[in-house]
Amino acid sequence: MATEASSEEAPDAYRRLIEKVQRITNVGNAAGLLSWDQQVMMPDEGTPARSKQLSALSAISHDLLVDDEMGELLDELESSELSDDQAAVVREVRRRYEREARVPTDLVEEISETSSEALPAWKEAKAENDFSTFAPYLEKHVELKREYAEHVDPDRDPYEVLFEDYEPYLSLERAEEILDRLKETLVPMIDEIRESDADLAVDAFAGTFEEAEQEALFRDALDFLGYPWERGRLDTAPHPFSMGTTFDARVTTRYDESDPLDGLMSTVHEFGHATYTLGLPDDAYGTPLGQARDLSVHESQSRLWENHIGRSKAFWEAFLPTFKEHFPQSEGVTVEEAYEAANQVYEDNVIRVEADELTYHLHIVVRFEIERALVSGDLDVEDVPEVWNDKYEEYLGIRPDTDSEGCLQDIHWSHGNFGYFPTYSLGSVMAAQLFAAAEEDVGDLDGKIREGDFDDLHEWLTENVHRHGQRYETNELVRKATGGDFTADAFVEYVTDKYGELYGLESA
């Protein structure tokens, strides 16, 4: 679908608005590349310069967005006749403008600089199991983000304001309702699984799997799924992520020589993010119509590919031979055993990114509750490790032995990303709803996956999600794609059926 961003029929004010927005986007994308480099390739001693560079770009982007002309153009366009696409662009720009116009530039710079300085401190703290190394940066981030929220809207819950940076069109109340539904569903299900007599092949991939061969395997997996290397690349990072544009969407992964499934599923997950970015319309680049809807939708794409594809039996029927080519020691593993290994529910896993599909959401709940308490002032930074461990014991029945595998395991707080974590669970729930709709529309997705044919699924996702960019608000996008409002119903049905069969649950 062609964008109307450059249409000759557009009002002059709209064309000028688009020019300004494209410049802001390009500054932001340049900052994104510097951030990618810092996490992937930058020398260890590069932080002092990089923090200043990113801070400067943040300030430039902020100043471009909130200048007087931007406000005047938006006001002029309020009374102009606009197409639906043009109105969507103006809506998105106005939303950002109204938030950022309330925030001083020096605060924007300080947040960016703190984030860049906090990253190496977090890496060191995690490597040395020393929370005190990271604690001052976390405390500063909390203070800065409270100040940021106060500027945006002093009359509202600051955490709610921060949450809207990542999910502006689903209320925090709605997010809490879904998280509560997940707890109500998953806690008893996990308890029943732990009491089950089912004997899954959890050690199907036991042994040593060399890193170099894992990389070759993961590249084959990306080929298998349809990753266009001319618009991307694979690298390693301490915490896997994807970033980029419709012309350059990169993925990162990591390697554990004792657990090849961890890196494989991380790679498939990041592929899901990248394929969303790559599915955005080229001709809308630089405008909201060429940008992802927000993090819940973005996460729905990664979780769809990781869980509904990568952990499916059909995927292992198709991909297991390739796995065995790289690791002949797995020659005796059957499809059923591979499927069971990929979907086991762990009793003692403390690491979120290594979590199974069910306990994963309790990891999210822990982070959500802690960061809400931090932002509200109900929890001091120095008490985070103990509270973290207590909540793990309460929700997951396990207690981290170290802070490195506890409160220091995630990168997000080093970026000051408070309000980000709920989108992981929201995205997982949305993935189930989208996949169910795709199955109904496309038909026999399992059969296509088994044949290594993902063209119809790519086409469905592009048509119903990717190509729209930010044209629709979140719930409207889901409704147009699936025929219903965003709910947790499809997810609950999916996990109940899948894990009921795997573990022989009476409640299924």
Molecular structure report:
By secondary structure, this protein is mainly α. It folds into 2 domains: 144 residues, no CATH class; 332 residues, Orthogonal Bundle (Neurolysin, domain 3), CATH 1.10.1370. A 3-stranded mixed β-sheet has the order 1-3-2. It starts with 11 loop residues before the first helix and ends in a 5-residue tail after the last helix. The N terminus is likely disordered.
What is the fold's blueprint, element by element?
Layout: H1 12-40, H2 47-66, H3 68-78, H4 84-100, H5 105-128, H6 131-152, H7 158-163, H8 172-195, H9 211-225, E1 234-236, E2 242-245, E3 248-253, H10 260-279, H11 295-310, H12 313-326, H13 335-342, H14 360-376, H15 384-396, H16 422-442, H17 445-450, H18 455-464, H19 474-482, H20 489-503
Parallel strand pairs: 1-3
Antiparallel strand pairs: 2-3
Helix pairs in contact: 1-2, 1-3, 2-5, 3-4, 5-6, 8-16, 8-20, 9-10, 9-12, 10-11, 11-16, 12-13, 14-15, 16-20
Task: Give the helix level as a range of percent.
Answer: 55-70%
Reported by name, the CATH topology of the largest domain is: Neurolysin, domain 3
Structure classification:
mainly alpha
Mean pLDDT: 95
Q: What is the CATH domain class of the largest domain?
A: Mainly Alpha
Terminal Cα separation, in Å? 43 Å
Per DSSP, the total helix count is 20
Tally of structural domains: 2
Largest sheet: 3 strands, mixed
Share of β-strand residues: under 5%
The global form is globular
The count of β-strands is 3
Please tell me how large the radius of gyration is. 23 Å
Please tell me the CATH architecture of the largest domain by its name. Answer: Orthogonal Bundle
- What's the order of the H and E elements? HHHHHHHHHEEEHHHHHHHHHHH
Unreliable sequence segments = 1-8
Strand order of the largest sheet: 1-3-2
